[in-house]
Amino acid sequence: MTSPSEGSAARRDPALAVIMSERRQLLNLAYRLLGSLADAEDVVQETYTRWYAMTRAQRDAIESPGAWLTRVAGRICLNLLGSARARREAYVGAWIPEPVPDPTEWAAGAAGGPGVDPADRITLDESVTMAFLVVVESMTPAERVAFVLHDVFRYPFAEVAEIVGRSPAACRQLACSARRRVTAARAETSPDVTRQAGVVRRFKAAWEAKDIEALIALLDPDATAVSDGGGRAVAHPLPIEGAERIAHLYLTIARLAPPRRYLERTVNGLPGLVVESDGRIETVFAFRVADDDRITHIWAVRNPDKLRSWELT
Prior knowledge:
It contains 14 helices and six strands. With about 325 residues, it is an alpha+beta fold. The protein is elongated.
């Protein structure tokens, strides 16, 4: 988050204001590449550290500071992605990208919710939905960087090549391969936010009423539910497949869990659910809803390290 001292310094120094204005763009880029808000913030901090490690003369010689910052942030992300596989293998259970809330929704609907600096907001659009991020997670690091930079942030392949360290033609092929995966996944998903909100609302009502028939009817027969506890919270270690198995599991959870509130919230730009217990957010649910208005995927994030941006403090 931008501190008051940084804000006042930026007002005194127009050059600093230009540099700091790139912060939100860098945060959005790094989050889409890494799937972690905490890691994205670290990347942005490291990018600015490298900028100010240069002499004033070196900084003044850079024709486009924004392009320089993007190249550096992209390379840092690429390096992190190269080591991410080992970290994922050591992770306890399934790894799901960190969910982000809609700051305006929290400001309007959550008393005592945290103040959010506009510079620290993730822009919520199709490229940040949980379904999109899960597909991006399946790509190689080079595919991911080439695709996100070109297709999401509209950087030309000549600039992408400088970051990835390959030729523009090779980057074009990487992005094309990644695009095919995203297109295939998008074909299975209903993009209608209003319809998804209705499906999620009916799912919430059926869950609260412990109505197993209604739950099964809302789930695709081949639906999949994935839970991420990271060893910090109880979670089913493997994906649960099939509407009946998922419905029975969720009703068991509802019967055994302490009193909880089920809240309708925007999760990564789409309608989702948040479970609150004793004033603490314990689970954030994201959904993929198909064109027939049935849920095909449920992602439940329970790792408290990934829920810090949801805290009601």
